């Protein structure tokens, strides 16, 4: 298929683009490089530097589907500067959807998030559970889901939203390289690399076994594979929504211990207060995508997830 990957110079977009190229698809990456890296565009993909708000000319070339990753994705930043999140994540996506409609592009796979659920009433979280986002980031992603449902019903768009829980690990050389890194695993590994002095542990008084937050970490390669299945499952006039996670929770302390094991390096920890807005436990039920699309994680172990992230970080630094 002829595919447009928006945000394909970012972490998850680059891994999906790489897997699509490997499957023999004709891949174009559209990215404005606001947070991505040109050298993260995989070999074999064409790169166009530009904005999703101005994709009409490119889409008119003719594409079979768009895989849409381009977005702003920092929860804390979205609370401080909500307008930017609404403009980019909702406004940008609506412009993209209108341009797709004008160009007759029939399918979209959308990169969504567990942040649409907010504080859960129960775990594991299912797709039918209440959506009460606790940040403009989550709210802007949820608003896109509403738009996708409408576009599917009105115009016959074939849409799939994938709601990611915690994504980690690396796929070959493709790894997390955020200028502002807020995620736990890359931050802990930066301490192991000596690039940061210590890990700040945000809260040890949660109602969990060891008092630290529990999250569902999924290997980015497994996550990416789900996009290829979603692309095949796209059905005209239908908007499907799937959670993507391991279905297993790991505490912050467990993650830090595994990072110590994998790197063999000391990782000093400084315990601090809770980070505002962090729910105690977030674990996905991914039963729906397993049942309907036959997806299942092939690398569910935390050790392998951390080891792949570590290897890619060392490689990027020429170590
Ligand atoms: N966390 C932490 N120190 C950090 C980064 C994260 O203690 O430097 C905790 C955070 O409070 C949360 C968990 O690690 O409980 C996962 O956070 P992350 O930002 O990686 O993902 P989130 O679950 O917020 O999407």
Chain-wise SSE layout:
Elements: E1 2-6, H1 11-22, E2 26-31, E3 46-49, H2 56-59, E4 65-68, H3 75-80, H4 82-103, E5 107-113, H5 136-155, E6 158-164, E7 166-168, H6 184-192, E8 199-202, E9 214-215, E10 217-219, H7 220-233, E11 239-244, E12 250-251, H8 252-263, E13 269-272, E14 281-282, H9 287-293, H10 302-316
Parallel strand pairs: 1-2, 1-4, 2-3, 4-5, 5-6, 6-11, 7-10, 8-13, 9-14
Antiparallel strand pairs: 9-12
Helix pairs in contact: 1-7, 4-5, 6-8, 8-10
Task: Please characterize this protein's 3D structure.
The chain is globular, with a radius of gyration of 19 Å. By secondary structure, the protein is an alpha/beta fold. It is built from 10 helices and 14 strands. It folds into 2 domains: 2-168 and 218-244, NAD(P)-binding Rossmann-like Domain (Rossmann fold), CATH 3.40.50.720; 170-215 and 247-318, UDP-galactose 4-epimerase, domain 1 (Alpha-Beta Complex). Helix 4 (82-103) runs parallel beside helix 5 and helix 8 (252-263) crosses helix 10 (302-316). It has a 7-stranded parallel beta sheet with strand order 3-2-1-4-5-6-11, with helices on both faces. A 3-stranded mixed beta sheet has the order 12-9-14. The chain has a two-stranded parallel sheet with strand order 7-10. Helix content is 38%, strand content 18%. It has helices at 11-22, 56-59, 75-80, 82-103, 136-155, 184-192, 220-233, 252-263, 287-293, 302-316; strands at residues 2-6, 26-31, 46-49, 65-68, 107-113, 158-164, 166-168, 199-202, 214-215, 217-219, 239-244, 250-251, 269-272, 281-282. The chain binds uridine-5'-diphosphate (UDP). Uridine-5'-diphosphate binds next to helix 6 and strand 8. Uridine-5'-diphosphate (UDP) binds next to helix 6 and strand 8.
């Amino acid at each position: 298929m002829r595919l447009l990957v928006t945000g394909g110079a970012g972490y998850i977009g680059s891994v999906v683009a790489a897997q699509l190229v490997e499957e023999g698809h004709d891949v174009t990456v559209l990215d404005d490089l606001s947070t991505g890296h040109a050298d993260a565009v995989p070999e074999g993909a064409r790169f166009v530097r530009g904005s999703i708000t101005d994709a009409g000319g490119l889409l008119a070339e003719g594409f079979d589907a768009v895989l849409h990753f381009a977005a702003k994705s920092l929860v804390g930043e979205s609370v401080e500067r909500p307008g930017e999140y609404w403009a980019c994540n909702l406004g940008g996506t609506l412009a993209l959807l209108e341009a797709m409609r004008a160009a007759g592009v029939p399918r979209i796979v959308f990169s969504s998030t567990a942040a649409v659920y907010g504080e859960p009433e129960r775990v594991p979280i299912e797709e039918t559970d209440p959506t009460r986002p606790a940040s403009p980031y989550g709210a802007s992603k949820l608003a896109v889901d509403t738009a996708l449902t409408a576009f599917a019903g009105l115009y016959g768009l074939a849409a799939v939203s994938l709601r990611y829980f915690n994504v980690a690990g690396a796929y070959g050389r493709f790894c997390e390289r955020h200028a502002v890194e807020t995620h736990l695993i890359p931050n802990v590994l930066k301490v192991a690399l000596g690039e940061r002095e210590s890990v700040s542990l945000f809260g040890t008084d949660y109602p969990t076994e060891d008092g630290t937050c529990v999250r569902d970490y999924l290997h980015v390669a497994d996550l990416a594979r789900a996009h290829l299945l979603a692309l095949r499952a796209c059905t005209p006039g239908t908007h499907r929504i799937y959670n993507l996670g391991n279905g297993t929770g790991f505490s912050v302390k467990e993650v830090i211990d595994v990072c110590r094991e994998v790197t063999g390096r000391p990782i000093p920890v400084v315990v601090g207060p809770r980070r505002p807005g962090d729910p105690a436990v977030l674990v996905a039920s991914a039963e729906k995508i397993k049942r309907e699309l036959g997806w299942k994680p092939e690398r569910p172990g935390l050790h392998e997830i951390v080891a792949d992230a570590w290897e890619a970080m060392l490689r990027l630094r020429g170590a």
